[in-house]
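Budget justification, computational time. The allocation requested in the original proposal was used primarily to generate structure tokens for proteins on the priority list. As evidence of use, we reproduce two of the resulting records. The first is shown immediately below.
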Amino acid sequence: MGYQAAKEANDASIEAETYLFTLFDDLRRNPGENLLSKLANMDRNEDHLTDEELAALTIQLFFAGFETTEGLIGNLLIALHNNPEEKKKLLADRTKVEAAVEEALRYDSSILKQSRVASVDLEIGGQRIKKGDYCHFIIGAANRDPARYKDANSFLVDREDLGHSSFGHGIHFCIGAPLARLETKTLLEVLLERAPNLRVTQEEIDYPQLFAVRKPLQLQVVNS
């Protein structure tokens, strides 16, 4: 990301945070029956979320609610376009749709990394990590690990070694995973039925200048 893009992103972040601080104050004066009202009006004790933490959570909920699934759908359509033999398998056998969604999550995840702060000293792969270190986990690399997957760089809808890290693990496993899977599965089933000849018309596809997110900024398709 260049300087200008980074500055614009930072300015937008400040603007969004300022708007949310005002919104939280309004919700405390006039609460409604919604999630943000409940979060903003939690017991005001030493364990409550600060407005900064609440703003970060709100932004996370906003983007996690649609952007990641939007990216998954776009990446899946591109993968099918670039692998017509795999698409033929889906057209011949719709029971492979769920597997195709999982393979898209592995092959071209819309989230490429997650970040964590080490809670203890530890060593991973010969690399010492100290308590408090900020660590980046590269999901895109893990999902293409040749030691884990046969033909790791190939998109295969009938892959036997299914599995991926795109939704995370443990207590931070994505709470929206079932919804994202259902939405993508439903859309793919409908497209295979109503637009079996769907293809991407763009020669070049633009992606965000963000390391953590991978999705087409726009996708032009036709059914012909």
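The second record produced under the same allocation is shown here.
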Amino acid sequence: NCKNSVGETALHIALRTNKEYVFQILLSTGPDLSIQSNNGNTALHYACIDRVISDNVVDKLLAAGVDINCKNIFGETALHIASKKNREDVVQVLLRKGPDV
């Protein structure tokens, strides 16, 4: 749960750098999923950005209790980001969980 200079945890960095195997290990340790980087992104926001990260990761974060409605400093939820990035697979996973829209 330690943060770097831009407020990212190891979990955030694993997702931002497309290290899904590292994500799996870190998630198994029970990290605080509510931690936001300096720009307000949670692990869920990071998981929605890059197509390399599978929708399975998003599903695992949701199952672990991440807040689906958390907004970053730009007022964006993970659903906003997934939509902007044309992540149709992730949008479907998120919509099944009933986010605020």
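A brief technical remark on that second record: Residues 65 and 88 are 22 Å apart (CA to CA).
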